[in-house]
Amino acid sequence: MSELILTKNQYLEVEKLALGAFQPLTGFMNEDQFHSVTDNMRLPNGEPFPLPVALDLTPDQASNIKGLPTVALVFEGEEIGTLKPEDQFKCDRENASLKIFGTEDPNHPGVAYFRGGGGVFAGGSVSLTKRVEFEYSKEERTPAETRALFAARGWKRIVGFQTRNTPHRAHEYLQRVGLEHVDGLFVQPLVGRKKKGDYTPAAILAGYRALIDDFYQSDRVVFGILSTWMRYAGPREAVFHAIIRRNYGCTHFIVGRDHAGVGDYYDKYAAHDLTKRFDGELGIEIFRLKGPYHCAACDGIVTEQTCPHETTLPSAVTHISGTDIRAMLVGGRTPEPHLIRPEIIAALEGVPLFVLEDEA
Ligand SMILES: [Zn+2]
């Protein structure tokens, strides 16, 4: 059988497709699906799907598998599954970037990755014979496993939480608000290919362990990583993240400020607006939450829904972002306790905090 050698990132995509994380997809998108999703955020049958899941090949790779019924997928010398090639196609990547990311700016990391791809997309269904193995594999759960776990705990309503950060006070607030409304919380940090300066999986894990074990009712929380890559597609990616969490068995999903954003490319609540357009169609309900931030006048973590001081006393307000906390930690400053719990800072002691260079 002919072979196609995959990158780690492509292998992770095959795995997610095969495990049902990207349902209703069972393979890489064909040309019709790709254009339908890029243009309309829907599959050809009308079902919402906001981002392409496409196998990006070099022209040589593409011509080697053209017309074959089945191709062995190989990672680091080992066969991990198969692809049944369906079609091959190209697209105008600048134009597609504008639709997917709202910008064609090559400084946008998602755009840079997309525009730097191989040149030819190959559609087709996949099968998986070997799971991805990496340092944190034991922290990952499959959709079947989380569904079984939620059922075993008797949970009917489960809220999913997406993150790329070690937990700070704003994320903790969002999670607690979520927990007020449902039976359980599923914290699912995304740990796929990262860019320089992102938190390491080790830092995310250590921080959440400290938070869940000592500050939450740990039997109301499930933790499991999601090994896929950030697209940095902002609002469209918020919808994608919600669909993924539906597939893992969540009934609700938290979308906060600037979900899946990067830099200043997206309005802070653009993801709220876009998810609203799909209300009732996603199979998961979106908790659209504002803020939160710390207010010295209110003396706590609040939101623009509950505190007036963002406009009347801006000096009292400190916005909490993973990026700012990261900058403090990189600069050797300890973030203040109202931004991140000292217990979490302590848990990070000796843990490599940040990715040192862009991953392939
Ligand atoms: Zn206030």
Number of helices: 13
CATH superfamily of the largest domain: HUPs
**Bound molecule types:** zinc ion
Helical content, roughly? 25-40%
Low-confidence stretches: none
CATH class of the largest domain: Alpha Beta
The fraction of residues in strands falls at: 15-25%
Distance between the termini: 27 Å
User: From the 3D coordinates, which CATH architecture of the largest domain would you assign?
Assistant: 3-Layer(aba) Sandwich
Q: Number of folding domains? A: 2
Q: What is the 3D shape?
A: globular
Radius of gyration: 21 Å
Main beta sheet: 6 strands, mixed
Structural class: alpha/beta
Mean pLDDT reading:
95
> How many DSSP E strands?
14
Q: What oligomeric assembly is this protein in? A: single chain
List the main descriptive attributes of the protein structure presented here.
360 residues; alpha/beta; Sulfate adenylyltransferase; Rossmann fold; 6-stranded mixed beta sheet; 5-stranded parallel beta sheet; 34% helix; binds zinc ion
